[in-house]
Every structure is written in C-alpha cells, then in structure tokens.
Write a structure and sequence with these properties.
With 165 residues, this protein is α+β, with helices and mostly antiparallel strands. The chain folds into two domains: 2-44, Arc Repressor Mutant, subunit A, CATH 1.10.10; 57-143, Lrp/AsnC effector binding domain/regulation of amino acid metabolism (RAM) domain (Alpha-Beta Plaits, 2-Layer Sandwich). 33% of the residues lie in helices and 21% in strands. It is built from five helices and six strands. The protein has helices spanning 2-15, 21-28, 32-44, 83-90, 116-127, and strands spanning 66-74, 95-100, 107-113, 133-140, 146-147, 150-151. Helix 2 (21-28) packs across helix 3. The longest helix has 14 residues, at 2-15. It is flat and about 55 Å long.
Length: 165
C-alpha cells in the first residue's frame, strides 16, 4: 500500500514538481502531513534527486549556450566496467548528462558550453585525453523540439490548405 502510494506520488511529482502538497493529498486521498513525510523520506534516500525547471531560452533572447551530444567509446576496466570512467566524466562542470548506451558506442555525454569552440576544446583537451577513452564523435544540437516530455513551440497551427470560393 505504502509503496503504491510512493509510486503514484512520484508520478505526480514527475509531471509537475511545483504541485502543492495539499493538492497531492487530495489527489491521492492521504493526509497532507503524510505526503510531506513521504517526500522528505524520498529526498533523504536520494530517490528524488532534485527539481528542474525547463526553460525555452530561445524565447528569452538569452540563448548563449551550445549543446552537444558526444558519443564516446571507452575501454571498460576490470571489475568496474564503465562506472569509473562514467563517474569521472560526470564530474566535469560542462557535462550535463552521461548515459551508458548499447550499440556502436559506450557512453552518450551531453555537454553545454558558451561556444562551439569551447565545446570542441572540452572534447579535445579534457574528454578525449582521458585514459580508457578510445574515440569520440560530437553532434551539435541545432534546435530542440522536445525535452523531458515537453514540446517546445507547440503552436496549434492549422496546416490545411485554404480554399476560397
């Protein structure tokens, strides 16, 4: 029962982290104090790792960041596999995400910088020089259409042809 409540609570928070505990309590038919207690517990045990606000920087006129996805092939280490190199890459401040992948490369690394040159410098001077990194392939993000389940610039345009008499 409690585990089911936690999962339902997590799903609700994943959709909207700003939802009030009072509203969550009504949605889940539980006392507000119980909801806050569960949230505190989930934060303490690092199930809830943080809360994020997704911003469309293009609309602010302050889009001064360059994003790149970097495919990285690495040599796994005995007894720890990819974990040590992934943890090391994760510690760079330019790195926003690191994922272990299946397929043609081992890690997918999302990086943000202030220019193409800065990202290129990060790849050539910091990432590619790490022990166990065999190769990298950098892909620059040109436009975001959807992130974290949220569609950017979702205009409900009517794409039908106009027919006039």
């Amino acid at each position: 029962m409690v585990e089911d409540l936690k999962v339902r609570l997590l799903h609700a928070l994943e959709q909207n982290h700003r939802i009030a505990t009072k509203t969550l309590a009504l949605m889940l038919n539980v006392e507000e104090t119980k909801i806050q207690e569960i949230i505190n517990e989930l934060e303490d045990v690092k199930v809830i790792l943080g809360y994020v606000t997704l911003i469309d920087w293009e609309k602010t006129g302050h889009n001064d960041k360059v994003t790149a996805m970097i495919d990285v092939q690495v040599t796994p280490q005995r007894d720890v596999g990819f974990d040590v190199i992934a943890a090391r890459i994760s510690r760079f401040p330019e790195v926003k995400s690191v994922y272990l992948m299946s397929g043609g490369y081992d890690l997918s690394v999302m990086v943000e910088g202030t220019s193409l040159k800065q990202v290129a410098f990060f790849v050539s001077e910091k990432l590619a020089t790490l022990e166990n990194v065999q190769s990298t392939a950098t892909h620059f993000v040109l436009k975001k259409y959807k992130q974290n389940g949220i569609i950017f610039d979702d205009h409900k345009k009517d794409h039908r042809l106009v027919i006039s008499p």
